[in-house]
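From the methods appendix. Each design record in this collection lists the tokenized structure first, followed by the designed amino acid sequence. Records were kept in a plain field format so they could be parsed without special tools. The example shown here is representative of the layout used throughout.

RECORD:
FOLD TOKENS (112 positions):
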């Protein structure tokens, strides 16, 4: 059974979590974005299922369409956005679920 976590930008659905990895299905609503953040230990790979995901990192921007993926190493500052409609993507990561250091957030959530 999956666990759905509502977010101000959409939702996360945890499909599997164990000591080794976590798999989530994320739905980001049109015009929304997650916080600008990094992880101290967590490593994640995102894989787009539907829509176009805009990924910001360093001074770069990449667009990921369905079938595209990107791996984010620990300490890498990043932010994802759905600028052209609802976007659905998978995230497979190491299982440090609370390892999030927010630098900026559109929804006024806690930042470091």
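DESIGN:
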């Amino acid at each position: 059974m999956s666990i759905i976590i509502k977010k101000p930008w959409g939702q996360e659905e945890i499909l599997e979590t164990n000591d080794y990895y976590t798999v989530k299905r994320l739905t980001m609503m049109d015009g929304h974005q997650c916080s600008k953040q990094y992880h101290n230990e967590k490593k994640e790979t995102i894989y787009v299922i539907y829509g176009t995901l805009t990924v910001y990192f360093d001074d770069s921007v990449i667009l990921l369409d369905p079938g595209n993926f990107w791996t984010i190493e620990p300490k890498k500052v990043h932010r994802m956005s759905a600028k052209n409609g609802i976007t659905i993507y998978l995230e497979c990561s190491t299982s440090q679920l609370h390892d999030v250091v927010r630098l900026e957030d559109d929804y006024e959530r806690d930042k470091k």
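APPENDIX NOTE: The two ends are 33 Å apart (CA to CA).
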